[in-house]
Amino acid sequence: MILLTLISLAWGSTPEYTYLYEGDVAPFAGRLMSDAAIDLITHEIVNAPEECRIEMQYRLAMLEADKNEEIRKLKSAMKFNNDVHDAKILEQQKRIQELEELKTPPKSRLWFSLGLITGVGTTIAIANAVN
Q1: Could you give the CA distance from residue 11 to residue 54 in angstroms, rounded to a whole number?
Q2: Sign of CA dihedral 22, 27, 29, 30
Q3: How far apart are the C-alpha atoms of 100 and 96, rounded to whole Å?
Q4: 31, 16 in Cβ contact below 8 A?
Q5: Helix axes 35-103, 2-11, angle to 10 degrees
Q6: Predicted confidence (pLDDT) per residue in 39-64, tens digit
């Protein structure tokens, strides 16, 4: 309503007005408004900045609420992804530890001693065979 009033004022010709009393003939063609209508229009124009401010605050509050909701969702998704990755890392570390334990024989002294005895015995047998 206010926008239409302001647009008509911007594109309209120079306003003409005169005060008429009941029963008088209008001196020009156009629209005739009462003082109450003029008061209503001026009241809307005067209060327009307040209404615009309230509308702007409402829209800003809605945008801020949407932004906060999006931030909360992103933080939640990030926490979930971090928890999943942490669980995967722990699982991989466990697997690496198990493989490390499997790679080393459980009785390393026994295998070392057996290898040493076999090597010495083979060397002695070869030396006797050559002589």
Answers
A1: 28
A2: negative
A3: 6
A4: no
A5: 120
A6: 787 877 777 777 788 889 999 999 99
Which residues are within 8 A (CB) of 28 and not within 5 positions of it... i.e. 6 or more apart?
A: 16, 18
Average pLDDT of adjacent 10-residue blocks, the chain of 131 residues = 53 62 72 75 76 88 97 97 97 93 76 91 91 77
- Cβ 44 vs Cβ 5: under 8 Å: yes
Tokens describing residue 35: 């003082």
Tokens of 47: 């209060």
**Whole-number Å distance between alpha carbons of 108 and 98:** 17
Contact 36, 48 (CB under 8 A): no
Give residue 84's identity as a one-letter amino acid code. V
Name the DSSP letter for residue 22. Answer: T
> Which position has the token pair 């156009």?
30
Residue 28 per-residue DSSP state? S
Nearest partner of 8 among 53, 45, 54, judged by Cα: 45
